Amino acid sequence: MNEIYRYTGYAKQSFHQKMNRQLSQRGEELLLLPIIAELRNEHPGVAARQLYWILRPSNIGRDRFEKLCFENGFKLEKSKAYKRTTDSNGVIRFPNLVAGVEFTYINQAWSSDITYYQIGDRFYYLTFIIDLFSRRIVGYSVSESLTTEQTSLPALQMAVNDRCPPSTLIFHSDGGGQYYSKAFLEFTKGKLKNSMCEMAYENPNAERINGTIKNQYLKGYNPLNYSSLIKMTQRAVYNYNTVRPHKSLKKSTPVAFEEQLSADSTLLKSNDFCIKTNTNQQYQKNHQILIGDQINNINPSLKTVNVF
């Protein structure tokens, strides 16, 4: 190491301080990528510089923001769909444990995603966790930043405290930085099995709940500030879980459906309540995503049925 210090011209302390700053900077950039991807979907013809002025991130300058966009496939010259929402190079990855799997009861698998909500010129962030069997939102958070401590972690803590799931629970996400940070992995160790997807269409259930809460509830409630956004999100989650019927749950609400599980075992025998997580044809069509043959090469012993 002394040779490295001499070669770089840094003292030992200065060298490690510089490395820590670079690692911190890289972590902040990874947290931005899912939000940039969502902005790109909302504004497909807007250049990276305009995306910067829309988002106005406090932790990154304009030029570095543009460089981040270009390095991760967000240049307008590329006509193909932007399938990657995170940069997985050199970071922890977990296998996709839900692809093609049939779930038959609650607390077998949860899925999570993070989205943004804009009020005026400010961006806030919503994190939701749903049970893949009952469609119930089991945890959520509303935050002013994209850090793990304000997004995925409090949402998961809420879900775990409320549900007390078994350690066999699969927790599925899109692989964003908030789902493999040190704080998140320390909390999940021994409590659940981490699962990640490579492409956005491999996490359709969590993405769908983002759109449902934002478009069917929050836009109508019209929160005017951060405080009201917190209250309106709580209201939206309550109405989604306890009032809104689901066709796939035989027009029951997620809460009512869960309450019926122990009373009516025939609910578990219906394929209508199983989850197919390997593909989503309508999502692919809407977003012009091309899938290779490898998507269909799942374990034939795993039974799959239609989702929603």
Please explain how this structure is put together.
There is one protein chain. With 308 residues, the protein is an alpha/beta fold. It folds into 2 domains: 2-71, no CATH class; 109-296, Ribonuclease H-like superfamily/Ribonuclease H (Nucleotidyltransferase, domain 5). It is 41% helix and 12% strand. It contains 10 helices and 5 strands, in the order ααααβββαβαβαααα. It has helices spanning 2-8, 12-42, 48-55, 62-71, 152-163, 182-188, 204-221, 226-242, 254-261, 281-287, and strands spanning 109-119, 122-131, 137-143, 170-173, 193-196. Strands 3-2-1-4-5 form a 5-stranded mixed β-sheet. Strand 2 and strand 3 form a beta hairpin. Helix 7 packs across helix 8. The longest helix has 31 residues, at 12-42. The relative contact order is 0.12.
Question: Could you outline the blueprint of secondary structure elements for this entry?
Answer:
Layout lengths: L1 H7 L3 H31 L5 H8 L6 H10 L37 E11 L2 E10 L5 E7 L8 H12 L6 E4 L8 H7 L4 E4 L7 H18 L4 H17 L11 H8 L19 H7 L21
Parallel strand pairs: 1-4, 4-5
Antiparallel strand pairs: 1-2, 2-3
